[in-house]
Amino acid sequence: MTELKKDSPNINAAGRWISYREEIKVLDCTIRDGGLMNNHNFDDKILKAVYNANVDAGVDYMEMGYKASKRIFSPDEYGAWKFCTEDDIRKIVGDNDSQLKLSAMADTERTDYKTDILPKEQSVLDMIRTATYIHQIPTAIEIVQDAHDKGYETTINIMAVSTVQEYELDKALEFIAQSNVDYIYLVDSFGSLYSEQIHYLMQKYLKYALETGKQVGMHAHNNQQLAYANTIESIILGANILDGSMAGLGRGAGNCPTELLLGFLHNPKFKLRPVLECIQKYIEPMRKDLLWGYDVPYMITGLLNQHPRPAIKFNQTPDRGDLVKFFDQMIEED
Q: Which 3 state secondary structure label does DSSP give 245?
């Protein structure tokens, strides 16, 4: 066996993989992203199980759901976690006497943020995440400023970045970097991006973010079974906040699995067993009804850089198994 000297490049490389970056945070979005598969109609016992598992596992953030406008989304159609009222959150977490921070997402132009997001001292939430399409950036910045002024940590998650013209993305990142946001998220909304594209985009995001003291995050979808690999690519390049969901539960093909992230990061504060127990008892039993996870129709939308909405709809029809029919439909429409 070849002896490796202490200053050998191989030793240094090995050290990077068996050590850990303490500043990396994990955000579990099981309930928020998973809620897109059942209109956010989760039983309280599911919320409590996911919350307790995240606390016991040492996860940094848990996303409870959306801060959606009840003028736009009817509470008769959507569950409590579409709206994340303070009373509903406190029913699950009390005063959240734990190290776990809580977040909610505000969709740009779909939230009454000025009234529905309370000042931080009146809320058990710690972070407001703002999801935005490229043409909504000015409004998203206003939501961030409002949340910042109220005392919250903030993120901006630019959705559908795989469809954005580069000059528009550059301008958006320049604008966002000058705001009071804490984290800027690279989001592979359609699960269409490959590692080379993640590498290129993450370097771009980091360039703008680091110049103004921001951090960069990663939110990946698994249409082409690349969510975990693309998240690892982001970690290597310098992303310091990472989204995952238990068993990948999320819209369509789902997200990077939280359990894979915790296992990869090597940080001894993370404990895998509580997450596995939650998956076994609470998450996997929902799969037969919610039908999330890698599936050929979701792969097709990912390959075509399309929203998974047509695949979700197709999977609810009697033609679900006719993959060629769905492929032909998508090619015809592309």
A: strand
- Both 149 and 246 in a single domain? yes
Query: Do residue 97 and residue 180 come from a single domain?
Result: yes
Are 281 and 302 in the same domain? no
As given in the structure block, the two tokens for residue 137 are 């950036």
Residue 104 counted as domain residue = yes
Instruction: Print burial letters for 114-146: b (CB count within 10 Å at least 16), e (below 16).
Output: eebbeebeebbbbbbbbbbbbebbeebbebbeb
Q: Is the pLDDT of residue 331 over 70?
A: yes
Task: Confirm whether pTM is higher than 0.85.
Answer: yes
Q: Are residues 177 and 133 in the same domain?
A: yes
For residues 226 and 250, the answer to whether their CB atoms sit within 8 Å is no
3 state SS of 155: strand
Phi, psi of 77 (to 5 degrees): -100, -30
- Kindly state the tokens that stand for 11: 């030793």
| Position 197 in a domain | yes
Same-domain pairing of 307 and 223? no
65 shares its domain with 102: yes
The C-alpha atoms of residue 66 and residue 320 are separated, in whole angstroms, by: 30
Count CA atoms closer than 13 A to 192's CA, side-chain side.
Answer: 17
Q: Is 252 within 8 Å of 312 (Cβ atoms)? A: yes
Query: DSSP secondary-structure letter at 2?
Result: P
Query: 188 forms bridges with which residues in the sheet?
Result: 220
* Residue 247 DSSP one-character state: G
pLDDT tens for 62-101 read 999 999 999 999 999 999 999 999 999 999 999 999 999 9
Do 315 and 231 belong together in one domain? no
Q: Considering only CA atoms, which of 81, 83, 89, 183 is closest in space to residue 127? A: 183
- 25 lies in which domain range? 17-289
Residues 86 and 128 both lie in one domain:
yes
Query: Which pLDDT score is estimated for 19?
Result: 76
* Whole-angstrom distance, CA of residue 119 vs CA of residue 102: 14
Collect all residues with Cβ–Cβ distance below 8 Å to 118 and sequence separation of at least 6: 86, 150
- Check residue 293 and report its DSSP letter: S
